[in-house]
Amino acid sequence: MKAIVYQKFGNADVLQTVEQSKPGIQPNQVLVRVKAFSINPMDWKIRKGEMTLMSGSNFPKHTGTDFAGIIEETGSSVIGLKRGDEVFGVVKNLMKEGVSAEYVAVPASLIWKKPSDISFPQAASIAVAGTAAATTIQKMGNINPQTTILVNGATGGFGMFLLQLLKQYGANVTAVTSTKGADYAKDWGAKLVIDYTKEDVLTKKATYDIVIDLSGKMSYKKAKQILKPNARFLNPTPKPIEIPTALLSNFFTSQKHIVILSSPSTKYTDILLNALKNGLQIEVNKVFPFDAYKQAYEYAERGGYIGKVVIELD
Ligand SMILES: NC(=O)c1ccc[n+]([C@@H]2O[C@H](COP(=O)([O-])OP(=O)(O)OC[C@H]3O[C@@H](n4cnc5c(N)ncnc54)[C@H](OP(=O)(O)O)[C@@H]3O)[C@@H](O)[C@H]2O)c1
Asked: Most buried by CB count within 10 Å: which residue of 37, 105, 264, 306?
């Protein structure tokens, strides 16, 4: 089978296609013929060697973590799934495994049936960004229409799911987006939009109960300027040192710094599948064919698009 791998850390140039044998499966696993896999910022952070503490430095590495496809074979202990089912899922070890190939073997517990009214590229977009959004909602605590929430970087993959899940709570959400993201953010439930290319949210007067940064550009220290006295700053892009220091510092301050480390599971995909039934939209900005994988990664990494970028296989 065709697979995309890399043998050293670097830009998209280090990606190359190789021929590999189809993976075998364990009794609890499913072999999926991949129809689409999505691109997440984690892919290039790992590829550039920015996460070696968790990803290790062994090569070759595959890339890509969440996907959609058709079941080719099921392990002997798998129940409820069969050959031919259309599914979406995620690899088990997000830091060390990759799905960038024609076939992937994953535990049946990380596979879910694809709703028939969404495409393979849309389904491939759910497991990482959607699960992160559902995890974030839980970390927000009790949300009600009076809760003021700022989502900084609101129209990428994560923000797209988060805004729409928050809409269900009727929370008072302000979204920070680029100019082209403003209308999407409003459609997805934001009451107010701040265009980061024109205004600096940190110098405005408003303060919030919850601030979440999805741009990777607002630190806890900066966010404190716009946090209410008992507010929470949610951080899904912590530096490794912040994981213990955030926990420790929370004992001494009422403005909590909460690190988000999500892990896809049925608990969260159920929330998303339910939200899809209630109208959640998955915006796939661009679908690249498999052979254009380098352009796909370069395009995604440049940013400036709404929703997700996906690579599709025949
Ligand atoms: N901890 C976890 O479990 C977890 C899970 C999933 C993702 N993440 C992380 O969460 C982050 C968001 O993920 P994603 O998939 O949504 O990434 P993404 O699609 O790249 O979205 C990032 C967003 O930030 C916006 N942005 C860029 N510069 C900005 C600025 N100066 N001010 C405000 N917004 C700005 C971008 O808008 P424009 O492109 O329009 O400029 C884009 O909408 C990533 O760093 C990812 O690695 C963490």
From this structure: 37
